[in-house]
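To fix ideas, we reproduce below a protein record of this kind.
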Amino acid sequence: MLLPALFTRKRGQRNGTPPIFPKLKKGQLCITWIGHASFLIQTSQANILIDPNWANWLLVVRRLRHAGLAHHHLPSIDLVLITHAHFDHLHRRSLRQIAANQPIVVPSGVGDLVHGLGFEKVYEMKWWERLRFPGAAVTFVPAKHWGARKVTDHHRGYGGYVIDVGGRTIYHAGDSGYFNGFREIGKKLHPEISLLPIGAYHGPKFGENHMDPEESLRAFEDLKSKVLIPMHFGTYRLSYEPLHEPPQRLMEAATQSGRLSAVRFLIEGMPTLF
């Protein structure tokens, strides 16, 4: 089982050896989990980075597991997507490290945080807007969360992305509590693979805006996706549940519902072909 492998390395491994990325044919898809909510999505036409974050500290919160992939071992990145302005999803130093005059997409009201970091163009999106880029089309979809960078922010957007790459569709939910919007996203956009958060749910300020593992599985059912890839757990201690609890509860819930075969836990830094 993958669960013991995920947690035998208490703080992860330092990745001095670059990963071997597969040579992809048309229609093939490779997903690499960097850690937390950070993913590299690869097709034969594009390399897309979502919520990249290599920070060892988020203010007073320490990273508990090393990133699975060093930023200097990335392939050439064609597009960067940011789901919202919270520090664990929009980390300016990490963005500066990977910026190479490519476009970046952010929610409405977040553009000022990424200007001047080295990107070719900044696109701001509102819910249900769709943009096309070489090798990919991106739709920004709703979430149940909030987007403030600081207490006085009242204007910043938040959400998730459904990415269409050569007929394959991947949904990255960003941060979200459970809400009926998952049904609408599934009905309109039919994501094949869903990257869903399963951690940071225990505590009075988290329950409404983050999903617990059972809610993530419920969202997966609403989306009618084929594959659930869990994320947003085990990297930073953002709430009070034990680090091992989210994946354990997800596996138990998926077993009880007969959906365990649809859950794919990724190992940080290991490119996985779909």
Notes: Confidence is low (pLDDT under 50) at residues 7-13. The domain at 29-273 is CATH 3.60.15.10 (Metallo-beta-lactamase; Chain A).
